[in-house]
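Input (Transposase):
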Amino acid sequence: MNKRSKRYTKEFKMLILELLEDGRTKKSLENEYGVATATIRKWEKEFKGIIDKKYNANEALNEIMDLKRKLQQEMEKIKN
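Output:
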């Protein structure tokens, strides 16, 4: 009997990794989605660069938004 491996889309893989980043365990993801924990570890290695870039971009955006809020507060102080 020929055993075929499952094929997952990049979007599905990223969804699983985002859930993992949000605090889900590999075991819970395995139970819910049927993806082996070894496969999830493989995806972590495969997409590490993409995930790092995404979170670095989010951190930069958060810093910019914080600076914008501080600037707006300072502008309000000057007006009053």
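The mean pLDDT is 83.
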